[in-house]
Amino acid sequence: MSPAVAAVIAGVIRQLTGATVRWVGDRPDPGPRVYFGNHTSHLDAVLVWAALPVEIRRHARPVAARDYWDRPHLARRLLIHLAKAVLIERDNADMAARERQTERMLAAMGERGSLILFPEGTRGTGAEITPFKSGLYHLARRRPGLELVPVHLHDVHRLLPRGAVLPVPVSCAVTFGPRMTLGSDEGRDPFLARAREAVRLLAAG
Fold it and tell me: What domains are there in the chain, each with its CATH number?
């Protein structure tokens, strides 16, 4: 899909959803980053993608669950094609499988690309942010210095209620926060708690 067509579609998505976009304590940067946020709707990934400036959006790929998105459903296939989603398995009990999955995401990023990731692993209700799974930590550990940008999606779950085909008009927002990195000696659990808190603070602000 050409950049011009993608830009038009991103504009249509923003118009349909009516989402406002804010950057708090930071500014957009086209360098390789992981944008991670709370997950309350099937629209989350494409909405974050559409909210990014064009020079970032063209190199940003959402990470999506294969069991939901890789189905013979026209809308889902279009979204995968539009944003070049990276499909992954949600359940990887095997350490070797988790390593392969991390490698796949890093390969999808390349030297210039970014990822859009939802570390909760599944949709929540919007009432609270559930504990993060470890994928974000493993990405940051494998690529030292990788910039991670917290994102909070406000009321996006109300845009597409269960059973709805088209978005309904509500007031929603996408807020990007200050970048962070994994500390050189930071453990998995403290890091994931800090990342989750970064997203929660954007909701409070």
Answer: 3-204 (3.40.1130.10)
